[in-house]
Specification:
Chain lengths: 333, 287, 276
């Protein structure tokens, strides 16, 4: 129903190759997140799937049919834009109804579907308002309403939560996840925020400079990153990387340990260091430690840990949680 | 966003405007150049080749130098008045007071008055040495009335033109002034800057771009002042400018060749200014 | 200013600002007042400001002139005609340049603007000669076309800036929602572009109404608009201040009103975007 396959899809802008060539399989009903740093090509990839950009080469197959040359209006996909892209001169009802109007539905059908979408998204009281009279979160919901009302094969989200404040972002994250569970439609979601990726995705696609670094479930990527880039991108705070002598001891060019896998002690441990800055969040404590012969490391300790600036601390990495990397950045078994 | 078939459609859509403007630019210009090389009078005498003699006569004719001088004085005078006045007015309109909207409308109004009306109103009802308001004001303080147009025709015209363009400068400088972020001003205050320093070190530099734009655009339009002269003094040595000179050569002397040479001179002068203006706009278009 | 300013200071500024404003506006005000005086009253010394015999005789006299109504009609025809004609050509051009820009688009726009900077006298002579030859020197149609050409660069430019302000992603959303190009134009693009088109229309009607080079030089009895009508008062007979005032008030009043609504457009249209 909503399966999408990309065969060697590439995109060149002017002389600049943004995406060299991507193969990707998205199964019907999956919640797939494209994640990566700015400029990695995730939005471009989304727009290629949407049809808003033409692929320079390769094939885009939607539900078994080659859609590479199909214009966006005919691909039966819906997109939620980062800026929501609501029609300012139409009311909320008008905005949500628009795709149905374009499809030529009768007024009765349109009214019914708009009412349904409004109910799901808690917009019933706002149907007559214009977008400029709505808050950010409400506008977001209108954009989503406009997307779901057509019952598309897949939803495309382009960093929809970037413009919302932190608290609202958490709420909307939940709402979108719940939406996915109830509609069961394929969703492709682009974000630079790895927390959103980890919490929402069935499958994460990590992109870097137009190339796929790794595809996998969130926990897959967390426990078994394919290379240093993925290891450093997934997980917050970032994984600690150590090169040189310490890495050599474990037969690797570089090793990586996540801050949450470093035990801290006042008395003994593998590495000795001095606390530079300690951040107390109540639930956790983050220590930024200058470790002898290694350098800066980040440690996550429990909320009760009583370290402060200047204290000596001993860090011990959890065995089995140390990632080893070769000189090319690939993970070594 | 632009797929292939949109691009050819785009060419068709831009086409008519481009063609029209191209013809409008090229045809008269080429013809003016052509005429300027002829001895061409509209009185029925033969048309002969003149080469560059029209230009020669033009440049040696004292009327040309008066016209050039007057053109430049008119532009310079108006620029000074409108810029100084514009900055002061912009600063004033930026202050908090009651009825800002209305005062703004009062200040903007002169720009929308047609040139023939302003010229005649100023000449007759304000500046006339017998019946005008200025005369009455002068007598009120015991001075003699000034016969503006008899003794100071160019100044009078400059005043009229400056009055008309003051709103333009004010609006542009006000727009630029209001784009000066409040925070910059507050930072300066925290740094202990007195008002005058604030003006010279923060506000004025910020306005530099707007001032340059005002100068360039006003110059282009001020070089072509015509109606005000036509309607008040009908030229003459003291107040003819280049456009008026061309006009009088063509319409009054029927000297097509000479007038065309004058037209080309005007085009060259305007082009020099336009070069800088287009560069400024181009830079901003990138932004 | 974020902080409260003392009432005295505000009052001080208010008085000062109103004085300056009225001073600048004064000639227009004076014209308006004089138009209601008798000719004798108009040249009386000392001049009366508000307390005189208000009369509307001047307005009747002006309107009774056989050429007054014609001039009004000509002004309307020229300003509306040239602007609408220009819009017909300019809207597609600006649309294409804003939404399907090519590598040359910016240069093209610059070139168009530069045609506006050419002085009228550079084109005047051949145009005069040609029109004279074809006996077209007093033609309304010619004037409409001339003013269309003169204002076309500004109109294209203004429309371009307004179109560019329409967020691209709204048009993309429209496409994702299943709209064909035609429907995109009808349901989304045009409603969002109408304010910009209206503003452009407004400013250029004003500019065309006030144009005073071509309208003075290429017209005579039949095509003369109000600019030329007023110019006749430059060589009057007898007392004429009150009549001049009435004629002037009639000529400028509509434009003043329109102009007050188009301040923002003025900055946009005549600075060619060099000031933001």
């Amino acid at each position: 129903m909503g399966s999408i396959t990309l065969h060697k899809v590439s995109k060149v802008f002017g002389g600049h190759t943004v995406i060299p060539g991507i193969d990707l399989d998205i199964l019907d009903g999956e919640f797939v997140v494209f994640v990566g740093p700015s400029g990695c090509g995730k939005s471009t990839l989304l727009r290629l799937i949407a049809g808003l950009e033409d692929a320079s080469s390769g094939k885009i197959v939607i539900d078994g049919i080659d859609a590479t040359d199909t214009p966006p209006a005919q691909r039966k996909l819906s997109m939620v834009f980062q800026s929501y892209a609501l029609y300012p001169h139409m009311s909320v009802a008008g905005n949500i109804a628009f795709p149905l109007k374009m499809a030529g539905e009768s007024k009765a059908v349109i009214d019914k579907k708009v009412a349904e979408a409004a109910k799901i998204l808690n917009l019933t009281d706002y149907l007559e308002r214009k977008p400029r009279m709505l808050s950010g979160g409400q506008r977001q919901r209108v954009a989503i309403g406009r997307a779901i009302v057509r019952q598309p094969k897949a939803f495309l989200f382009d960093e929809p939560l970037s413009n919302l404040d932190a608290a609202l972002r958490v709420n909307m994250r939940l709402e979108i996840s719940e939406l996915h569970q109830s509609l069961k439609t394929t969703m492709i979601y682009v974000t630079h925020d790895q927390v959103e990726a980890m919490t929402m995705a069935d499958k994460i696609v990590v992109l870097n400079r137009g190339n796929i670094e790794q595809v996998g479930s969130p926990l897959d990527l967390y426990h078994r990153p394919a290379n240093r880039f993925v290891a450093g991108f997934i997980g917050s705070p970032k994984m600690n990387f150590v090169e040189g002598a310490e890495a050599g001891k474990l037969n690797a060019f570089a090793i990586g340990v996540r801050p949450e896998h470093l035990a801290s002690s006042k008395t003994d441990g593998t590495w000795k260091g001095r606390v530079n800055v300690s951040e107390h969040l109540g639930s956790d404590t983050f220590l930024y430690v200058h470790v002898d012969t290694i350098g800066q490391m980040t440690v996550r300790a429990s909320g009760e840990a009583g370290f402060s600036h200047g204290d000596t601390v001993y860090l011990t990495p959890e065995p089995g949680r140390i990632h080893r990397f070769g000189p090319d950045g690939e993970t070594v078994a | 966003m632009a797929t292939l078939h949109t691009r050819t459609a785009a060419r068709f859509m831009v086409g008519p405007s481009v063609i029209l403007l191209f013809i409008w630019m090229i045809v008269p210009l080429v013809m003016t150049i052509y005429y300027s090389l002829l001895n061409y009078k509209l009185d029925g005498t033969d048309i002969t080749w003149a080469g560059l003699s029209n230009y020669y006569y033009f440049f040696t004719d004292p009327a040309f130098f008066y016209a050039l001088k007057n053109s430049l004085l008119l532009v310079a005078g108006s620029l000074v008045i409108t810029l100084v006045g514009g900055i002061l007015l912009a600063l004033l309109l930026d202050q908090p007071f009651w009825g800002q909207g209305i005062v703004r409308l009062l200040v903007i109004a002169p720009f929308f008055v047609m040139p023939t009306v302003s010229a005649l109103v100023w000449k007759n009802m304000m500046m006339n040495p017998v019946n005008g308001l200025f005369a009455w004001l002068a007598k009120l303080v015991g001075l003699d009335a000034i016969d503006w147009f008899a003794h100071w025709p160019l100044l009078s015209i400059t005043l009229i033109v400056a009055w008309q363009w003051l709103p333009f400068a004010t609006l542009i400088l006000l727009t630029a002034l209001q784009s000066l972020s409040e925070e910059q001003k507050e930072a300066a205050e925290m740094d202990g800057a007195p008002v005058l320093s604030m003006f010279f070190y923060i506000i004025l530099p910020h306005l530099t771009r707007a001032i340059t734009v005002v100068i360039l655009i006003e110059t282009i339009f001020l070089l072509s002042v015509f109606a005000e002269i036509q309607v008040t003094t009908q030229g003459g040595e003291a107040s003819s400018n280049i456009p008026y000179l061309v006009f009088s050569l063509a319409r009054l002397d029927n000297d097509i060749g000479g007038a065309s040479a004058g037209g080309i001179v005007a085009v060259i002068i305007a082009n020099i200014v336009a070069f800088f203006l287009v560069r400024m706009i181009g830079k901003n278009l990138e932004a | 200013m974020a902080r409260e300013i003392s009432v005295q200071k505000k009052a001080g500024w208010t008085v000062f600002a109103w004085c300056v404003g009225l001073l600048i506006f004064f000639p227009i005000l004076w014209t308006f007042l004089t138009s209601f005086k008798t000719e004798g009253e108009a040249v009386a010394s000392p001049p009366s400001f508000l307390f005189f015999q208000w009369t509307t005789e001047n307005y009747f006299e002006v309107q009774e002139r056989s050429d007054y109504l014609k001039s009004v009609w000509n002004s309307i025809a020229i300003s509306f005609g040239s602007t609408i004609l220009a819009l017909i050509v300019a809207v597609p051009a600006a649309w294409a340049m804003a939404f399907a820009p090519g590598k040359r688009t910016k240069d093209l726009l610059m070139w168009m603007l530069s045609t506006k900077m050419m002085p009228a006298v550079g084109a005047f002579v051949p145009i005069y000669v040609i029109l004279n030859y074809f006996h077209l020197l007093d033609s309304l149609v010619v004037l409409v076309i001339m003013l269309m050409l003169i204002n076309l660069p500004i109109i294209v430019w203004m429309l371009y800036t307004y179109f560019k302000e329409i967020p691209g992603d709204i048009l993309e959303a429209c496409r994702m929602d299943g709209a064909t190009l035609g429907k995109e134009i009808i349901y989304v693009l045009t409603p969002m572009a109408i304010p910009g088109i209206a503003s452009t229309l407004l400013l250029n009607i004003i500019l065309a109404w006030n144009e005073a080079f071509w309208t003075l030089n290429l017209t005579a009895a039949s095509a003369a608009p109000l600019t030329a009508f007023i110019a006749q008062y430059s060589s009057p007979e007898g007392l004429f201040y009150a009549k001049l005032s009435a004629a002037s008030t009639l000529a400028i009043a509509p434009i003043l009103v329109l102009g007050w609504f188009s301040q923002k457009q003025l900055v946009r249209g005549l600075t060619f975007g060099a000031v933001k």
